[in-house]
Write a structure and sequence with these properties.
By secondary structure, the chain is of the alpha/beta class. The protein has two domains: 202 residues, FAD/NAD(P)-binding domain, CATH 3.50.50.60; 142 residues, D-Amino Acid Oxidase, subunit A, domain 2 (D-Amino Acid Oxidase, Chain A, domain 2, 2-Layer Sandwich), CATH 3.30.9.10. Helices cover 30% and strands 24% of the residues. The protein contains nine helices and 19 strands. Strands 9-3-2-13-19-18 form a six-stranded mixed beta sheet, covered by helices on one side. Strands 1-12-11-10 form a four-stranded mixed beta sheet, with no helix packed on it. Strands 15-16-14-17 form a four-stranded antiparallel beta sheet. It is globular. It starts with a strand and ends with a helix. Bound molecules: flavin-adenine dinucleotide. The site of flavin-adenine dinucleotide (FAD) has 43 residues, from helix 1, strand 14 and strand 17.
Length: 372
């Protein structure tokens, strides 16, 4: 039995960021990953480091997201230096385009409410009318009436991020174990023995970051992770000359020139099939936003499954029955990578979850479950 200070289950963006965050603080960490047959949101996302629409009615989520976006530059620099991979972070601010007056009014109301809920923490945003937007984003279509803007938003190369986290983790002595599906666990407070398809490991801390796999694994550790799949489809165009300095919620241009067009939100269970009508809807909104996109070929398209809690917020918990066992789940693992590596990992190694994360416990769903 191999022994570690902590074992992290799941080598996607959430698990890799947490494992790296613990390893860089000197812990001996094992990172177990099931492998290519598992659902992997981390390989099919849109790559936004996005703040502006996060946490309406849940200011603690807005604060956590902001904190993560603020950690990203240090994470980007550190991972670039240690791994030789450029995570491609760009945080010039971002816009959400509105394609009708109705959308503009709804968005303005939403942003005003977010600012009000932010209280003394503050929330900087502006609603921009068309004239002002034209100076920021060239080639907008006639349907665009305006947009919301915040300075916090950005985007990154999320595949490079995943790769860089793994390289940095292993470079610092972390034990990455691919093909290690967690099958069973013998749990006692601060004493976990995990049986996997690649052998057994033991540690006083176990962190479940297995994405959609957490739902099944969490009860083994006295935890609850009621996450469900939510499908998203993404289209990628051929390379175009650089045109977009700012990412938008549904169109962003990579440094290489490709445009990513996204992304649907479909409740289809574990069905990963792509659908022409959904792709047409995504393309239609992109072309209404920027008509010149119609002249570009689509060179790639994919679908992937988000890891979604019932209320769309992350779930972070420590087991009451088996202290030392944690779960981490979210549908914004790119955005939250900074917080997971720099803020959450030290908590898991230290005194446990900070009270500021109490609102993310799965206990918030208990009343709904009793009622159901
Ligand atoms: C279409 C789409 C667009 C998105 N856009 C964005 C975006 O713009 N910005 C953003 O911040 N986020 C975005 N996301 C969300 C982001 O990709 C996810 O939040 C993130 O990837 C979740 O990472 P994860 O590590 O929790 O899960 P996953 O990537 O699914 O990884 C889970 C890992 O756990 C492993 N595993 C599962 N079961 C077991 C087991 N029993 N034993 C061992 N290992 C196991 C699997 O092998 C897998 O590697 C998007 C997601 C989708 C689908």
């Amino acid at each position: 039995m191999r022994r570690f200070d902590a074992v992290v289950v799941g080598g996607g963006l959430v698990g890799a960021a947490i494992a790296w965050g613990m390893q860089r603080r000197g812990a001996r960490v094992a990172l177990l990953d099931e492998g290519d047959l598992a659902y992997r949101a981390s390989r099919g996302n849109f790559g936004l480091v996005w703040v502006q629409s996060k946490g309406l009615g849940a200011p603690h989520y807005q604060r956590w997201t902001r904190a993560s976006a603020a950690e990203w530059p240090a994470l980007n620099e550190e991972l670039g230096r240690l791994s030789g991979r450029d995570c491609g972070l760009s945080q010039p601010g971002g816009v959400h385009l509105c394609l009708s007056e109705r959308e503009f009014e709804d968005r303005a109301a939403r942003m005003a409410r977010m600012k009000e809920e932010a209280g003394n923490h503050g929330y900087e945003y502006r609603m921009l009318r068309r004239g002002e937007l034209d100076g920021m984003l060239p080639g907008l279509g006639p349907d665009v009436v305006g947009a919301s803007w915040t300075p916090y938003d950005g985007h990154a190369n999320s595949l490079n991020l995943l790769h860089a986290l793994h390289i940095a983790f292993e470079g610092a002595g972390g034990a990455y174990v691919p093909g290690a599906k967690l099958l069973d666990a013998a749990c006692a407070p601060r004493d976990f023995r995990l049986r996997t398809t690649a052998g057994d490991v033991a540690a006083p801390r176990a962190v479940l970051a297995a994405g959609l796999g957490n739902r099944e694994l969490a009860p083994l550790f006295g935890l609850d992770a009621p996450v469900r799949p939510q499908k998203g489809q993404v289209l990628v165009t051929e390379r175009a000359r650089h045109a977009l300095d700012l990412p938008t919620t549904s169109v962003r241009q990579t440094p290489e020139g490709t445009l990513l067009l996204g992304d649907s939100q479909e409740e289809a269970g574990f069905d990963l099939s792509q659908a022409a009508d959904v792709m047409a809807m995504i393309a239609d909104r992109a072309v209404r936003s920027f008509p010149w996109i119609a002249g570009l070929n689509i060179v790639r398209a994919w679908s992937a499954l988000r890891v979604m809690a019932p209320d769309g917020l992350p779930i972070y918990d420590e087991s009451e029955r088996y202290p030392g066992a944690f779960t981490a789940n979210c549908h914004s693992g790119v955005t939250l990578a900074g917080a997971h590596a720099h803020l959450l990992a030290p908590m898991l190694l230290g005194q446990g979850l900070d009270p500021m994360l109490a609102g993310f416990s799965a206990r918030r769903f208990a009343a709904d479950r009793r009622a159901a």
